Amino acid sequence: MKELEIYDLLNVFKKEITFINNISDINKINSLYLGKNGKLNKIFDYLKKENSNNKTELLKTVNNVKSEILILINTKKSEIFNKESIIDFDFTIPKNYYNVGSMHIINKTITDIKKFFNIFGFKCENGIEIDNKYNNFDALNMPLNHPSRNLQDTFYIDDFFLLRTHTSNMQIHLMKNKMLPMRFLSCGKVYRRDYDLSHTPMFHQIEGFIIETNISLSNLKFILLEFLNFFFNNTIITKFRSSYFPFTEPSFEVDIKCFYCSGIGCSICKSSGWIEILGCGLIHPNILKECDIDPFIYNGLAFGIGVERLAMIKYKINDIKLFFENNIEFLNQF
Cα torsion at 140, 144, 147, 151 (round to 10°)? Predict the structure, then answer.
């Protein structure tokens, strides 16, 4: 075999590859020339058996031709891929608009509340929505004649179980099963037989409580004032007002100056100039005793926040039903 014959093979290859315009044909010509039974391998096998003086030179020539063929194949592949990647697109066509979902205003409000209390070391527990009367009422120092026990106020499943009326039921579960001291937020849905512009049968509540030593009203007031300033961006005026809850002693309600009338008086604040925002107090010693906690060593504070109420005040929403009607025009505002 002569060197010229090997280069003739290369020239034939160059002519053939010019007519190839798809990957399938590229793979075929690759096998034809460089495959196990390809033309170049047959030349290699032939030269290995031959005993000519220029055998070494011929083998070098075959290797050079093989390298050149390989380069030509890869170049052709790149050309084909580039042609296939070009998209015939009319850039004058108006773009498609997609409605992108976002976090619901209730979830956003809950996230904002959690963000603050996490800084103070509170852990969050969602808890259970179906509970027994003991955890929902009895253990929380609620007397048998308390109005919230009535069928008109509470969704009973049977004589023993009910849909929880507040997230305070988690106080009992956590105080009986967790190590002291503790700081928890109980977040989730609660259920009451109530329905008007500012109430729904299901709503969201966040209960926060601390069980430690030497807890005082100063701790309670500091945490809540810091939270309200954080949530409303330091734009509110607050006041603490004495109240009564069976599970706290002493008990307070926190009011803020009405956003809608600036304290002058309107239908939202019932002409008082103030809007009730949350209830709070120091945990009643009877509850601590019920959970086998010594009230002479430990004491605690608790507060309950209505998520919908906070959102309604912050974003000036006048109908609570808007949160649950899935009105896209309303939800897109947030």
Answer: 100
CATH (residue range 105-331): 3.30.930.10
Cβ atoms of residues 211 and 283 within 8 Å: yes
As given in the structure block, the two tokens for residue 220 are: 């309670």
Residue 105 token pair:
């205003």
pLDDT digits (tens, 9 = 90+) for 4-36: 677 777 788 888 888 888 888 888 888 888 888
Residue 326 in contact with residue 229, Cβ under 8 Å?
A: no
CA 250, CA 169: separation in Å to the nearest integer?
A: 19
Going across the sheet that includes 202-212, the strands are 123-125, 182-191, 202-212, 299-306, 274-283, 248-257, 238-245
Q: Where are the domains of the chain?
A: 3-85, 105-331
Q: Is 125 annotated as a binding residue?
A: no
Q: What is the pLDDT of residues 170-188, one digit of tens each?
A: 999 999 888 889 999 999 9
Has this prediction a pTM greater than 0.70?
A: no
- The alpha carbon of residue 8 and the mean position of all alpha carbons in its chain are separated, in whole angstroms, by 68
With H, G, I as helix, E, B as strand and everything else as coil, classify residue 332: coil
Residue 52 contacts residue 108 (beta carbons within 8 Å): no
Dihedral Cα 260, 263, 265, 270, nearest 10 deg: 80
- The pLDDT tens digits of the residues spanning 31-58 come to 888 888 888 778 777 777 777 677 777 7
What average pLDDT score do residues 120-127 get?
Answer: 88
> What is the rounded CA–CA span in Å between residue 305 and residue 200?
15
CA atoms within 13 A on the CB side of 23: 7
Task: Output b/e per residue, 8-44; b: 16+ Cβ within 10 A.
Answer: ebbeebeeebeebeeeeebeebbeebbeeebbbeebe
